[in-house]
Amino acid sequence: MLKSASGVLANVLKRSLVPAVRVSAVPLRRSHDGPVESDEEFDSRYELFFNRKDIDGWEIRKGMNDLCGMDLVPDPRIIKAALHACRRVNDYALAVRFIEACKDKCGPKVNEIYPYIIQEIKPTLTELGIETPEELGYDKPELALENVYDM
């Protein structure tokens, strides 16, 4: 019993006399110290990606999905390259959906940015035979059509 009491007393004295080492969680900020890519390099990288001759539908969708996940509106150069890639794999629907996604990325400035994009890519659209979502009637809800009984 004396041995047990002396052991407890030794532990109490040790804790009170020797300061405990406290490990505090120091916030450590980890940053990416890699090279910073300029806007021109970014545009060129995606343009080269979509201009690859061996690109397939999955890779086109992957590149478009990556672009749509970023906080930016793709440059018309990138959009043109993506439309040409859609034509190479013969995916008309993907081309129209990408134009819709670019319009959606314009956000509240859609009336300023989207007409500029259409103006820049219009020659490519004409060359490839692709209509805009507005020309296809996708900008109006289906229920906005004229009633067949009123015709």
Automatic annotation (TrEMBL):
GO terms for molecular function: metal ion binding. The keyword Methyltransferase does not apply. It comes from the Eukaryota. It is a peripheral membrane protein. CDD domains: Cyt_c_Oxidase_Va. Belongs to the cytochrome c oxidase subunit 5A family. Component of the cytochrome c oxidase, the last enzyme in the mitochondrial electron transport chain which drives oxidative phosphorylation. The respiratory chain contains 3 multisubunit complexes succinate dehydrogenase (complex II, CII), ubiquinol-cytochrome c oxidoreductase (cytochrome b-c1 complex, complex III, CIII) and cytochrome c oxidase (complex IV, CIV), that cooperate to transfer electrons derived from NADH and succinate to molecular oxygen, creating an electrochemical gradient over the inner membrane that drives transmembrane transport and the ATP synthase. This is Cytochrome c oxidase subunit 5A, mitochondrial. It is found in: Mitochondrion inner membrane. The lineage of its organism: Eukaryota, Metazoa, Ecdysozoa, Arthropoda, Hexapoda. InterPro entries: Cyt_c_oxidase_su5A/6 (IPR003204), Cyt_c_oxidase_su5A/6_sf (IPR036545). Coiled coil: none annotated. SUPFAM superfamilies: Cytochrome c oxidase subunit E (SSF48479). Component of the cytochrome c oxidase (complex IV, CIV), a multisubunit enzyme composed of a catalytic core of 3 subunits and several supernumerary subunits. The complex exists as a monomer or a dimer and forms supercomplexes (SCs) in the inner mitochondrial membrane with ubiquinol-cytochrome c oxidoreductase (cytochrome b-c1 complex, complex III, CIII). The keyword Transit peptide applies. GO terms for biological process: mitochondrial electron transport, cytochrome c to oxygen. Pathway: Energy metabolism; oxidative phosphorylation. Keywords: Heme, Iron, Membrane, Metal-binding, Mitochondrion, Mitochondrion inner membrane, Phosphoprotein, Transit peptide, Ubl conjugation. One of its GO terms (cellular component) is mitochondrial inner membrane.
